[in-house]
Amino acid sequence: MNTTTHRPAARARTSWRVVDIVVAAVLAAVCAVVFWAWSNLLYPLTAAASVAYPPGTALIGGGWLVAGVLGGLIIRKPGAALFCELLAAVLEGLLGTHFGWTVVLYGLIQGLGAELVFAAVRYRRFNAAVAVAAGAVSGLFLGITSNVLANYEWALGHQIAYLVFSVVSGAVLAGLLMWAVVKALAATGVLQGLASGRVARR
């Protein structure tokens, strides 16, 4: 095996370029607006509708996880999922939310969940199954964090339901839906110059 050939290829696959950083920052900014709307517009309505069964609010939890999965699928570099999710959370905090700056902690933990999945496949597979797994694990981390920080007084059954709903929401909204979004974007050619765009052309 010619290691001198494979090493540059491996570095090119994992090293960040300026275009990757710029696109990741733009993705995070767009997702921050989504996070803000989710927190300030959709969540109050969901919370009011879920008074009788509070774990139901977790069904929209996937909306706060889209940045990590989207960043991982589009940038396809180590750290992309964590970077996008965390930066989006920081920007959401700057925009203002009734959750306060705890959103940054959530962003860090949720981004780590998605990042672990992409790392598990060594940043080489970005199909629907990996996207769903990234969304699901990110949702799992969201559910655990919320149960520890906010839902600790709930009955165990409610906490388990919240955890399950968070995983399902993450898998569907952040995983499957974001995979479909990336496929649609790649088909238009707007991802040219990125790893995801090159794969789509092939």
Provide an overview of this structure.
Helix content is 75%, strand content 0%. By secondary structure, it is mainly α. It has a single domain (3-195), classed as Arp2/3 complex 21 kDa subunit ARPC3. Helix 2 runs antiparallel to helix 3 (66-75), helix 3 (66-75) runs parallel beside helix 5 and helix 3 packs parallel to helix 7. The protein starts with a helix and ends with a helix. The mean pLDDT is 92.
Attribute tags:
202 residues; mainly alpha; Arp2/3 complex 21 kDa subunit ARPC3; 0% strand
Q: In a few lines, what is going on in this structure?
A:
This protein is mainly alpha-helical and 202 residues long.
Topology of helices and strands:
Elements: H1 3-14, H2 18-49, H3 66-75, H4 80-95, H5 102-120, H6 128-149, H7 156-188, H8 195-201
CATH class: Mainly Alpha
Distance between the termini: 25 Å
User: How many beta strands in the DSSP annotation?
Assistant: 0
Mean pLDDT: 92
Domain module tally: 1
- Number of discrete helical segments: 8
Question: Which stretches of 5+ consecutive residues score pLDDT under 50?
Answer: none
The structural class is mainly alpha
Radius of gyration: 17 Å
**What share of residues are in beta strands?**
under 5%
